[in-house]
């Protein structure tokens, strides 16, 4: 009766390359999501450079004032409706 029972492990096929890629990709995705959630929860102190007068333009950056140009795709306004 003891010889009738087979206690050997079941034959499981080796995972293919795509199955391994999917498994490790899912692990990396989960780790990335945890890092993103922790970055939202844990505040990071700002550096001193960001605190000192952000209104000053950086060297090399020149801000051009935006001119109020009329839009070419809008129709001109009618001056007044004619009365009948």
TrEMBL record:
Keywords in alphabetical order: Membrane, Transmembrane, Transmembrane helix
Comp. bias intervals (Basic residues): 74-84
Entry keyword Ribonucleoprotein: no
Keyword Transmembrane in record: yes
Ranges of biased composition (kind: Basic and acidic residues): 47-64
Subcellular location: Membrane
Transmembrane segments: 24-44
Superkingdom of the organism of origin: Eukaryota
UniProt GO cellular component terms: membrane
UniProt membrane topology term: Single-pass membrane protein
Spans annotated as Disordered: 47-84
Family: Belongs to the UPF0239 family.
PANTHER family (alphabetical): MANNOSIDASE, BETA A, LYSOSOMAL-LIKE, MANBAL PROTEIN (PTHR14409), PROTEIN MANBAL (PTHR14409:SF0)
Protein name: Mannosidase beta like
Species of the source: Myotis myotis (Greater mouse-eared bat)
Lineage: Eukaryota, Metazoa, Chordata, Craniata, Vertebrata
């Amino acid at each position: 009766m003891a010889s009738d029972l087979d206690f050997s492990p079941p034959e499981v096929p080796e995972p293919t390359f795509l199955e391994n890629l999917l498994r490790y990709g899912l692990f990396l995705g989960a780790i990335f999501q945890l890092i993103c959630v922790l970055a939202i929860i844990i505040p990071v102190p700002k550096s001193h450079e960001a605190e000192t007068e952000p209104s000053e333009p950086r060297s090399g950056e020149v801000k051009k004032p935006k001119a109020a140009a009329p839009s070419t795709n809008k129709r001109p306004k009618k001056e007044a409706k004619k009365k009948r």
